Batch of 3 targets.
Target 1
Amino acid sequence: MLCKKCNREGTLVIRKVFFFCDACFIANIIHKFRACIGKNTKFTNDNKSLICLSGDISSTVLLDLVMNGINLNTHKKLRISPVFLHVTGILSTDDSVCNLIMDQCKKYNVDLISMNISSMITEYKDYYEADSSVKNNNFRLPTINNLVNKISPSAEKDFSSRIKQKVFYKVAKDLECNSIFTSETNTKLSAKLLSNIVMGRGSQIENDIGFADCRDKDVKLFRPMRDITDEELNHYVRIRHLSSVDKSVSEINLQSLIANFISDLEINSPATISTICKTADKISSADDNSGKPCQICQNNLKTKVDKLTATDATAFSKVVSSGEYQASLLTEDIESVTKMEVFPHIFEELCYSCSKNYYEFKTNIGLH
Ligand SMILES: [Zn+2]
Ligand SMILES: [Zn+2]
């Protein structure tokens, strides 16, 4: 079959339909990356940008695309000063991953900043304890040691990914970067969209899945690989001879189940994936991001609406099924009683989903 761009012999096929030769395929990926940045008016040139690397295949391609972009001498040159960051995981520091990313950076002759996420969690704990308004509320984040294996794997995954994002923002601000690049692909974002809905983060889809997360007024987070799929990444690293870490360890949590479902879908029904992400573009919440942010995930805290919400219903059934429900509560403000029991700090310090996670910390490790 012939390459769809230049009519020479095709060497690979995308989505079982589109044939490319190697050169046209690479040009097409570079174009997608640049177009994603270029068409977005929220991105201004001459940024100092924090590029977040994890060593996996998408991070490897992001690094290559960024370096390719800034080394161009044409009008298409990517005008950013990149700073490269690697945040090591919540459970362990895997030296082989650190070494691989360091080697990758050496190859492009750039420096790498490496740090462990747990240092950040301790810092946040101190921050919360020092904040008197929060202290009065008895709101405290769990430390890293009492977090692991004590809450459900899905909540832990959700929590650690939110904290990782906070680390990105903290480092960006410390280093005076005004933007952050992360390497989520179309495939990853499709899975994240479905996970968001399952975890009760439907209202956060616009900022969590879209090209730009503009919740922070000083630092914008961009996802420039949003139009590239995992299938395309595999061809890209093969053609460019790039090496990456295989992170396909099987985890047992909701997010991994959804990710597996999405990767099966990508193999068997590839057109569906782009439809999922396009749907996300159409779901934009009415939030204006001007309210108080959640202390963990930065999402805008919803103010109380008069209608009975799904949160009210969940709170009520949790209290009733826990056996703590007393008839006397009927005479009190049922709403505030149920919320305090099962949704700690909801709408005051935490959003619905973070409050739900916090309830697990609270019951399992004795926080208040
Ligand atoms: Zn071609
Ligand atoms: Zn939150």
Note: The first strand starts at residue 12 and ends at 14.
Target 2
Amino acid sequence: MPTINRQISFTKDQLATIKEKASQPGFSHTQWGDDDLLDTRRIIREHYRNEQRLKCAYCMNPIASISANGANIEHIIPKSKKIEFIFEPKNLCVICPDCNEVKRSQEVTGDEPNPLKRNAIQYPRTSGAFKIVHPHFDNYSEHIIHANRIYIDITPKGHWTIGACKLNRFYHRFGVCEELVEDVALIEEEEAFHKFHEQPI
Ligand SMILES: [Zn+2]
């Protein structure tokens, strides 16, 4: 099952606010944080917090249940690249402050990886259109093994996501240390467990 099964559906009033904002001349992604979108952001954040059961869409670590800064709204196709998808329900999710910091610094330097395989006019409706493990379309555990601090790719999508979101940050900071070795042992135990249970009787 994907991480998100139900996209946000905006009310008539919320859609009117969105439409008005998006139709302002010169509307750009830098206006996402404007005060008149405060309520819209709150509604989106709360919806995906619940839908994702307080887990970050990229690293699966816990996100804050109350603090707005601890649960950042993410545009899966970056809003700086595709302004037309800035309010697209399937393009939205919530992520943790660390993943957000990675994405934010990429936006500042203009180095955001583009998760789309090819350019899209309409928002794609299938997993295959994306290089990223998409929380609305993909089952995370089919693409990435995540045990404590380690992330291992199972598929090209998993590989792309681990790289784009710099998920192995613990390893990059501390290298191979005791905690990491313990995590590897945990993964090996899990794999052995699954193999054992997958064997035909
Ligand atoms: Zn995260």
Note: The CA atoms of residues 79 and 86 lie 5 Å apart.
Target 3
Amino acid sequence: MFFALVQDKKWIKRLKDNLEEHRLLHPTLKITQVGDWTRIPLSQCSESDIPELVRQHSTIVEEEEPQKTDSKLQPKLKYSVYPPMALIVSGQQVDEQSVQSLLSINVTHVAINSPIKDATDVVRRPKIIPVHGDFGPEPTLESINNPTESDFDAAFWATCVQHGVHQTWAPRYTMFSRGNIKEKNRVLTQFNNQQVISDSIVVDLYAGIGYFSLCYAMQHPTLVLCWEINPWSVEGFARGAKRNGINVRVIRHGEPFQPLQNDRIVIFLEDNCYAVERLSKLTSLPQFQQTPISHINMGLLPDCRLAWGQAMKIAALSPQKTVLHVHENVAADQIESYSLQCADELAKGQPGCSTEHLHTERVKTFAPGVWHVVMDISATNPIS
Ligand SMILES: C[S@@+](CC[C@H](N)C(=O)[O-])C[C@H]1O[C@@H](n2cnc3c(N)ncnc32)[C@H](O)[C@@H]1O
């Protein structure tokens, strides 16, 4: 039988109603909570009968019809399911029985997550402890820094669908932060009101596996241009983009970039300090001279200050206003004053450009009294 695994709570009722309308909601089995997923049981049907809305906003898994005793096996563990993997929150006792019960919810890989301890690790490399399943070869310095196609092929890749956007990553090499779902929702539903995304260029200076870039790409900009230094994130991002049916190209450092008609996402595998140079060349091409740079995403924690100057130079290339999305960990009692100060400091970095603080979003608590915030700051070049 099939189950729909739903992670985004706001979709649960709509998907349940939709299944009911199609007479596909299981008449006796209950909807249950599995880690942070809601598991909706479907009546007997073939996969092609499952409505499009349900497919788009859930992960469909096929499992044996549960026996009554199964509920006793449900572990009390805290974990997340990223098909086909269950990732157990660190610091818990994990025994064979709990692993077996996780395997019974149709995952094939189980690992224990441990937090990124090194705050200076800019590429945010994760540390997972594989417990069950083939997670691919143990990373080596060479495979981490200079992966080959065969390293990519041998690695284990996990997936997650949020707001209908597929994301892919190799858990041994890059992290996935499900806590950013709130910010992804803002990208999808609110950023277009700040500055229109369609027919514009969007820039992501810390693209990672693309969870923000993909949300922009869904809104039909002319191009999403991304910078990322971790080759594993770039590979995951490219795989994720293809999974979403979005055309993607990877340009390595030193390779020239000639835009092509069907480019949608271009990922530069290099430091974002080269972004200004790349964008100056692009915006001097006749076909891009009038294309606004609508949004610049800057998603690095604890702060992205190193890219502030670059971001303002990029905004100055735009014929219309650009909205910068500045991520930072900020003490709760300083958020308002710091946001205004941030807008002033950014303006000072690009004489002639004016800035305006539009909004500050509290994404999640980072530590007691400290919030991961995103400051939306518009930058306008006087000649625009
Ligand atoms: C917090 S993660 C961003 C998460 C991202 N939104 C995603 O979808 O995965 C920050 C990313 O910035 C990358 N990074 C850090 N410094 C960079 C730099 N100077 N240039 C380009 N990428 C950088 C890291 O490798 C990491 O993937």
Note: The domain at 2-69 is CATH 3.30.70.2580 (Alpha-Beta Plaits).
